[in-house]
Amino acid sequence: xxxxxxxxxxxxxxxxxxxxxxxxxxxxxxxxxxxxxxxxxxxxxxxxxxxxxxxxxxxxxxxxxxxxxxxxxxxxxxxxxxxxxxxxxxxxxxxxxxxxxxxxxxxxxxxxxxxxxxxxxxxxxxxxxxxxxxxxxxxxxxxxxxxxxxxxxxxxxxxxxxxxxxxxxxxxxxxxxxxxxxxxxxxxxxxxxxxxxxxxxxxxxxxxxxxxxxxxxxxxxxxxxxxxxxxxxxxxxxxxxxxxxxxxxxxxxxxxxxxxxxxxxxxxxxxxxxxxxxxxxxxxxxxxxxxxxxxxxxxxxxxxxxxxxxxxxxxxxxxxxxxxxxxxxxxxxxxxxxxxxxxxxxxxxxxxxxxxxxxxxxxxxxxxxxxxxxxxxxxxxxxxxxxxxxxxxxxxxxxxxxxxxxxxxxxxxxxxxxxxxxxxxxxxxxxxxxxxxxxxxxxxxxxxxxxxxxxxxxxxxxxxxxxxxxxxxxxxxxxxxxxxxxxxxxxxxxxxxxxxxxxxxxxxxxxxxxxxxxxxxxxxxxxxxxxxxxxxxxxxxxxxxxxxxxxxxxxxxxxxxxxxxxxxxxxxxxxxxxxxxxxxxxxxxxxxxxxxxxxxxxxxxxxxxxxxxxxxxxxxxxxxxxxxxxxxxxxxxxxxxxxxxxxxxxxxxxxxxxxxxxxxxxxxxxxxxxxxxxxxxxxxxxxxxxxxxxxxxxxxxxxxxxxxxxxxxxxxxxxxxxxxxxxxxxxxxxxxxxxxxxxxxxxxxxxxxxxxxxxxxxxxxxxxxxxxxxxxxxxxxxxxxxxxxxxxxxxxxxxxxxxxxxxxxxxxxxxxxxxxxxxxxxxxxxxxxxxxxxxxxxxxxxxxxxxxxxxxxxxxxxxxxxxxxxxxxxxxxxxxxxxxxxxxxxxxxx
Length: 894
Ligand SMILES: Nc1ncnc2c1ncn2[C@@H]1O[C@H](COP(=O)(O)OP(=O)(O)OP(=O)(O)O)[C@@H](O)[C@H]1O
Hints:
Layout: H1 9-13, H2 18-21, H3 28-31, E1 44-46, E2 50-52, E3 66-71, H4 76-80, E4 87-90, E5 94-97, E6 104-106, E7 109-111, H5 117-133, E8 138-143, H6 150-154, H7 163-176, E9 181-193, E10 196-199, E11 210-213, E12 216-219, E13 225-226, H8 230-243, E14 246-247, E15 255-256, E16 259-270, E17 278-287, H9 300-325, H10 337-346, E18 351-358, H11 365-379, E19 390-391, H12 394-415, H13 418-456, E20 461-462, H14 471-474, H15 487-503, E21 515-516, H16 521-528, H17 547-558, H18 565-598, H19 602-753, H20 756-762, H21 766-827, H22 847-876, H23 884-893
Parallel strand pairs: 3-7, 3-18, 8-17, 8-18
Antiparallel strand pairs: 1-2, 4-5, 5-6, 9-10, 9-13, 9-16, 9-20, 11-12, 14-15, 16-17, 17-19, 20-21
Helix pairs in contact: 5-7, 9-10, 9-11, 15-18, 18-19, 19-21, 19-22, 22-23
The structure holds adenosine-5'-triphosphate (ATP).
The site of adenosine-5'-triphosphate has 18 residues, from helix 6 and strand 15.
């Protein structure tokens, strides 16, 4: 019978683990099958159907992935809806089903719902972090359905920091506890959202590409930040979280919609003579997005995100499944960005710790079961974690090889036969050639590394627990010279610090900060001339307890001009450190004073006195640092004011830019207007062109008519000459007639004197003759009038023709002008120079437009005139009912 929700109230509220909360777990120990011979990594059938993975303790020498399960308490929502407990932690290694107790899984560790993140960290992440600091790559990731507690586990909150902040704190703690080595730490932070990789430390850097080299897969163009303290590193995470994709679903108000990978890159080397090369390792801390089931109510974008999340997690499951089979089959790493990036981790080149987060709620029983199956498969994946390659100093390696060579030569001379000597020599020569090429390669790598080291040297972190004999004497009169070199004091301090640390879990993260070697110029000089370059004295490579901060400050003063925000942060960290030390000392002092009251032992009193002196010194140091801090703050203020000025300048520039862009927009609008105007003009020009065409045609017609007229003129002239001839003939005849008349009148007189008989004999009728004469005279007169008229018309026509020619020429001229104007407009390409509004007429028409319109009018008038002229000519040419006078009159009026 499953437990009811009411019975699980204590489960939700109590701080105990799941084991003690579940009555049905009493038989669980007997169900654990580990001791009964589950050899190797193969799972063993458990109960009727389910499997239990072999539980393995960490560290396992990197044989398999460390798999832990973390239950979260029932959420308020689950509690409200009456959810029951369906899965529970049976002991600290087994997860069991409440409804079917035979269904159980075993893991490296199972954390109950009220386990603190610190405990989860200690078990599931600390060994991986420690190994990473020693040069073995490590990956810790949280896997689970939405709202199961992945982000809570990886990031946590202020009250309960998660794996990532705890790992950062631990890393700086390890540096502090490793006086013999110096470290360089860099961080990067990316997210995979909808199968797109975005840089969370540089929001402008999106959709980054995955690349592959000899070391494995990596993200191209990713931003890496050197970190100097835990606070510094956490500030990058906080900044990155701002850009992470988060949304809400019905299970989680702040559901992660992307997988995030926070990477810590660690480079370390031993000091001075102990130098053994540089070791590089990488620690990946991954917060996966949660898989979503059909119960997750999502729509639109959320659904799309969910499908991407599910797909990549499915691929992760497939990859894990393939790897767990242990066969050399194809592993589909490339099917998702997540598996692609995890390729080198999952394929066994480092420690991997998988923390599966689950809810005990009965409503999510199936989802939790799936997570457990996934975890169970992951447990079977084999890994072979090993320390990363060390970039050695080749000089030492070569001299060793030379020595070996010499020894070999000696051996050859002593007791080896000739053939063996020859083959050995050949091998040696081959070896030498190989060595030479390797040497060259390594030299190149070394040169590249050295230049990088030079750049990064200033950011190397060293433990403040080191000692530098002689460093104090190098700085004469330094007030802190009193406070160093006293081992007793240091021991007491350490003891007390440890004691206090054990006592006080609230130890702030900042107390773990260490000192960047370049914080002091002098110090950097010493270190850079010793650690990374063996040729120089190793004496200067040692460091002293607690003097560093002071050295840093004094040297920082020298470098005040070049003081950066990082150095400010560093100073703040150092001040915090000193404050912490003072707090330790004060509390120790108090404790000792209390003890000395009960036990007035003189040595303790002496210790108290010593501590008091030390405390005073520390206070003094603190004051100095505070003063220095003030100086730096002043500098910062001046920088800020300079910054303000610059910002103002930028504002002014922005305004100018804005006004400029305003001008641009008004210009653009005017340009648009002028473009419209140009369009209109173009249309007009086009119509004008058409009209011009028409005019041309008319012109051609006119010229044709002209030539016709000329022909007519010629005909008329011919007619006129014919008329003239006629007239002259008539005149001759008239003369003859006149002559005849004279003779006739004489004859008439004669005739009158003649008898009618005589006239009758001639057969002439005098009346007829008279009539004929009269008619001839009339005809002669009319012919003369017609001739005069013809001549007059001819003259008129000639004039008209000349006028027409002139007009034609004028028209041609106008046409040419028009063409010039049109060409000009075309050439201007639509750009119409600015016309101010007062230049425009009240009717809003541009003067140039008006000019054009006038021209068009003139042209159309001319065309009309031509038309009329043509009409007249038609009439003149003999249109019926039109007299010459009318035609001439009309032509004149035209
Ligand atoms: N071990 C725990 N103890 C107390 N509260 C927890 C624990 N684990 C998770 N929670 C709470 O449960 C809620 C959901 O947790 P969280 O956001 O970490 O889930 P998630 O797995 O990251 O979800 P998603 O995949 O949707 O991002 C949060 O309010 C968180 O504080």
